[in-house]
């Protein structure tokens, strides 16, 4: 490989450069600048040479070794010296990549404690059932999809884990957390079938989840929400396994360091694809794992060199590329490249010529070798050098073709897992080289293998032969005739293989995967903690963000739930006024605080601590979401309720990390997501990219998310209390709490907070709308609806309408457009399905009925947000919203621009009354001219209170 422009080639070459079999010339002239610069960053450019003579001696002796013994020898000695220097902790920089061979040499492989033959047969049974399951789901007339090749490439990786490492829920400490590659699910189902956890019929019903009765079939991928006793971690959205597993391992440490649970014996295993590593979320957080020394985390990357369309790095070497990335980030890297049959060849590679060939062969060529015969490989891979040709002279073509990859060699994989589990101080990544579709001739290494879901009878017979399964042709054919697919295979519960696998699982703490909920319900705080929010703000104004943060602060003082709250922010605590918590709650850092803080003399100084409660994620909304997910699912992963309180710029929540929130919901995690600085015109000055006019709509798309947009502090008290009670309390319908996520949008604009009225309508607040004021004058009447930060505009509009236009207005606070719409949709569905029952009336219809006049809604979100309820409003309904991109200006200017300010509400109300024939249409024109609602310059210089976030 000579292509310097390719990063993959560059890193591969780092390891290969000096090995060249041609390299006997005396002057090692660099062939390419990047290639020889393995450790150039570490050269002593500014260190004074205190003994130049001695230095010269060393260099001369190196030169003479190079001249006399050649490059291969010089390279070997240099590498040994580097190794020695590291062993003796001299502190030389690490190499970014090593040769394309196994990290663990045969002589350092541990004793294998299992019975390899039995385990091979177990693997064969699982391989078979997994493939048959998918193929059967794709018989004519069903064709619901699935993946065969992925599991076939990774079977050994999983089985080593299942038989020797993965701890089940009953293991001391509570067991491991295991992230399974999403489309590898067929193998996991197939294993559960052998274990007697799933019925044969369920395998037949792969991907048919409702037509045989809800829950009677099997989900496509790991989905805890669809199979809550089985799956723990939703993984199929590529990239989320990477980041979520890191933050899971970190959260385990957090629980331990905070004294909530001893998690020392628990390990996090994450299985990933090599193609998947291209997702930013896969690699984006690996530095966190290294920095926090998460040696409770092991990643296993199945390097089958292929993704969906074809090769991952045809021209490069994905394993070498990943090795240098992970080493650079500070991980322990274990490569499992070659199976044991290569050991003998490598032992005879005295010139390094074989290693050089391995180093310089691109992945695309290895993929081709996986489908070609031995003669081709002999010619292409071993043919270029007489010494290489000689090395395989004693082997026939068949033997050459069968030289296996490390990821299929059970003992090599075992050695890697064992080393990973024992490694201290760093997370480990195992890079296992495999063939995609391994053991199925029809699939192996084909570019299209990822999507090949059907096996013909011929394919299946060859597959059976390769697995040595006792299934006759007749049985096979009959099964195809009867069911359109091959038969499943189970040797019986008393077969030695099944007894073996059951015994192994028993010794390791029970079946995996398995999801349990062992958390004890929390004793939740009573009325007192909410009393401050009911008082209102008196003469002052406070923003709703402040109200939420105050309640959090008081919750954190509660003896029962206080320690279980997990504040999370991506570098925005100051923005939201939470820096006051730094000195008391402290920022979590497993190393504590190793420096004297610059602001240590201030009252509110920045404090890091091993027991810190606040998770500070740096600027990573994706990381913060991963923490929220780990915390919000601790009740099931750890049997301990934890309450994430993740606060963020609302624009960077659902929009930026919506897929992670979707996965959080699938994982049945709970918690509070606080979308602060919400609204399209409220966060003054920040402009287009920050102005959130739509997150409620995005939130509405997630069925687990309950969104509220409160206007007042007292509403916040009821809403947050309801969140706590629904998620962490018990009810008849949800004895273990409800699997929902509360999303609350709050604002940084100070507004007057009224005292809670004596006859407060708590049901209305929680269901989505309650009446705030009723006009008692005479004349035409309108109903003004708004949410969140819109209330002051509506209040001012109410006054203007009464004082200047003789119109009476009632005002309503809509705490949740989303919940009102959901309830209405659910009512209609109920009525559709219960045609003979008394029809249900949506709450919004009941709440608004009997109130005179048109309904005028105004919102700091796009009109589509309030429009969600249009169909069920009992009367004329019109909406003013902030549609279009935001921009930077004062709030009055922005609100005039979008026609959502008080004056716009007045004009719209008059227009609605005129349309209804209630007032003279000329009044509308009069108001329009008076207020100039089409002209933002009309509010130029109008002062705004409270600045930027
Ligand atoms: C975010 C996301 N994008 C795309 C996909 C579709 N997809 C599923 S598997 C796959 C290829 C996976 O390749 P790799 O990670 O190498 O896994 P392998 O099957 O080879 O083990 C793709 C693109 C997905 N599941 N998630
Ligand atoms: Mg792959």
Q: Give the biggest sheet.
A: 6 strands, parallel
Annotation, overall tally of beta strands: 20
Total domains, how many? 5
Strand order of the largest sheet: 10-7-11-12-14-13
Q: Could you name the ranges where pLDDT drops below 50 across 5 or more consecutive residues?
A: 1-40
Radius of gyration using CA atoms only: 33 Å
Secondary-structure content class: alpha/beta
Fourth-tier CATH superfamily name of the largest domain: Thiamin diphosphate (ThDP)-binding fold, Pyr/PP domains
Overall average residue pLDDT:
93
So how many helices? 36
CATH architecture assignment name of the largest domain: 3-Layer(aba) Sandwich
In which range does the helix fraction lie? 40-55%
Under the CATH scheme, which class of the largest domain? Alpha Beta
Small-molecule binders here are: thiamine diphosphate, magnesium ion
Strand content is: 5-15%
Question: And the CATH topology of the largest domain?
Answer: Rossmann fold
Keywords: Oxidoreductase, Pyruvate, Thiamine pyrophosphate
EC number: 1.2.4.1
Cofactor: thiamine diphosphate
InterPro entries: PDC_E1_N, PDH/Transketolase, PDH_E1, PDH_E1_M, THDP-binding, Transketo_C/PFOR_II, Transketolase-like_C_2, Transketolase_N
């Amino acid at each position: 490989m000579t292509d310097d422009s390719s990063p993959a080639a560059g890193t591969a070459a780092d390891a290969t450069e000096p090995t060249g079999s041609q390299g006997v010339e005396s002057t090692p002239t660099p062939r390419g600048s990047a290639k020889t610069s393995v450790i150039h960053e570490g050269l002593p450019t500014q260190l004074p040479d205190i003994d130049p003579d001695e230095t010269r001696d060393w260099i001369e002796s190196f030169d003479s070794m190079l001249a006399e013994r050649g490059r291969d020898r010089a390279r070997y000695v240099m590498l040994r010296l580097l190794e020695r220097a590291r062993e003796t902790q001299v502190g030389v920089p690490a190499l970014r990549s090593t040769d394309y061979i196994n990290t663990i040499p045969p002589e350092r492989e541990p004793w294998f404690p299992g019975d390899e033959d039995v385990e091979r047969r177990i693997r064969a049974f699982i391989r078979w059932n997994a493939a048959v399951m998918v193929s059967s789901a794709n018989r004519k007339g069903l064709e619901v999809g699935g993946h065969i090749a992925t599991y076939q490439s990774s079977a050994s990786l999983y089985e080593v884990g299942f038989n020797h490492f993965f701890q089940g829920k009953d293991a001391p400490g509570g067991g491991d957390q295991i992230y399974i590659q999403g489309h590898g699910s067929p193998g996991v189902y197939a294993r559960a079938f052998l274990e007697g956890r799933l019925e044969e019929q369920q395998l037949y019903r792969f991907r048919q989840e409702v037509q045989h009765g809800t829950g009677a079939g099997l989900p496509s991928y790991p989905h805890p929400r669809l199979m809550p006793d089985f799956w723990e971690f939703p993984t199929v959205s590529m990239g989320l396994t990477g980041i979520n597993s890191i933050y899971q391992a970190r959260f385990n440490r957090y629980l331990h360091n905070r004294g909530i649970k001893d998690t020392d014996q628990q390990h996090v295993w994450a299985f990933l694809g090599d193609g998947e590593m291209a997702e930013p979320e896969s690699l984006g957080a690996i530095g966190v794992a290294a920095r926090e020394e998460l040696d409770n985390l092991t990643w296993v990357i199945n390097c089958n060199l292929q993704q969906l369309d074809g090769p991952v790095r045809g021209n490069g070497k994905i394993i070498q590329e990943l090795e240098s990335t992970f080493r650079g980030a500070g991980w322990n890297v274990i490569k499992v490249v070659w199976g044991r049959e290569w050991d003998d060849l490598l032992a005879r590679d005295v010139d390094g010529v074989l290693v050089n060939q391995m180093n310089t062969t691109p992945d695309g060529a290895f993929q081709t070798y996986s489908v070609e015969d031995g003669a081709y490989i002999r010619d292409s891979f071993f043919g270029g050098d007489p010494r290489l040709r000689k090395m395989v002279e004693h082997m026939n073509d068949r033997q050459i073709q069968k030289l296996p990859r490390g990821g299929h060699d059970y003992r090599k994989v075992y050695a890697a897992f064992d080393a990973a589990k024992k490694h201290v101080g760093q997370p480990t990544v195992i890079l296992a080289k495999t063939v995609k579709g391994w053991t199925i001739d029809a699939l192996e290494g084909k570019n299209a293998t990822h999507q090949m879901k059907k096996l013909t009878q011929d394919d299946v017979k060859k597959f059976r032969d390769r697995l040595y399964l006792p299934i006759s042709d007749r049985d096979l054919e009959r099964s195809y005739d009867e069911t359109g697919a091959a038969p499943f295979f189970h040797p019986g519960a008393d077969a030695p293989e099944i007894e073996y696998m059951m015994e192994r699982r028993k010794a390791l703490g029970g079946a995996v995967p398995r999801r349990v909920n062992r958390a004890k319900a929390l004793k939740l705080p009573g009325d007192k903690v909410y009393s401050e929010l009911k008082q209102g703000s008196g003469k002052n104004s406070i923003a709703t963000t402040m109200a939420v943060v105050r309640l959090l602060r008081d919750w954190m003082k509660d003896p029962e739930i206080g320690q279980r709250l997990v504040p999370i922010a991506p570098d925005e605590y100051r923005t939201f006024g939470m820096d006051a918590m730094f000195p008391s709650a402290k920022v979590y850092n497993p190393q504590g605080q190793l420096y004297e803080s610059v602001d240590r003399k201030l009252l509110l100084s920045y404090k890091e601590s091993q027991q810190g409660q606040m998770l500070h994620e740096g600027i990573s909304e994706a990381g913060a979401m991963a923490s929220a997910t780990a915390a919000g699912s601790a009740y099931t992963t750890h049997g301990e309720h934890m309450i994430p309180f993740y606060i963020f710029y609302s624009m960077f929540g659902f929009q930026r990390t919506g897929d992670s929130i979707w996965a959080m919901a699938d994982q049945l995690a709970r918690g509070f997501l606080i979308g602060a600085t919400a609204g399209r015109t409220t966060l003054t000055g920040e402009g287009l990219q920050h102005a959130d006019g739509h997150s409620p709509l995005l939130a509405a798309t997630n069925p687990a998310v309950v969104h509220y947009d409160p206007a007042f502090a007292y509403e916040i008290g009821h809403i947050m209390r309801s969140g706590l009670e629904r998620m962490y309390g018990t009810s008849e319908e949800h004895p273990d709490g409800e699997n929902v996520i509360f999303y609350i949008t709050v604002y940084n604009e100070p507004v007057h907070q009224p005292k809670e009225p004596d006859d407060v309508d708590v049901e209305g607040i929680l269901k989505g709308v309650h009446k705030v004021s009723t006009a008692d004058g005479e004349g035409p009447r309108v109903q003004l609806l708004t949410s969140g930060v819109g209330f002051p505009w509506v209040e001012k509009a109410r006054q203007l309408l009464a004082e200047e236009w003789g119109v009476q207005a009632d005002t309503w606070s809509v705490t949740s457009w989303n919940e009102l719409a959901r309830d209405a949709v659910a009512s209609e569905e109920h009525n559709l399905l219960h045609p003979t029952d008394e029809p249900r009336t949506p709450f919004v219809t009941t709440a608004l009925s009997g109130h005179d006049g048109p309904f005028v809604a105004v919102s700091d979100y796009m009109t589509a947000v309030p429009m969600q309820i249009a169909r069920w409003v009992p009367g004329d309904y019109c909406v003013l919203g902030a549609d279009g991109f935001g921009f930077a200006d004062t709030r009055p200017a922005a609100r005039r621009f979008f026609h959502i300010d008080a004056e716009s509400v007045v004009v719209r109300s008059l227009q609605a009354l005129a349309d209804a024939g209630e007032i003279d249409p000329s009044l509308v024109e009069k108001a329009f001219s008076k207020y100039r609602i089409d002209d933002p310059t009309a509010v130029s210089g109008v002062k705004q209170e409270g600045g930027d976030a």
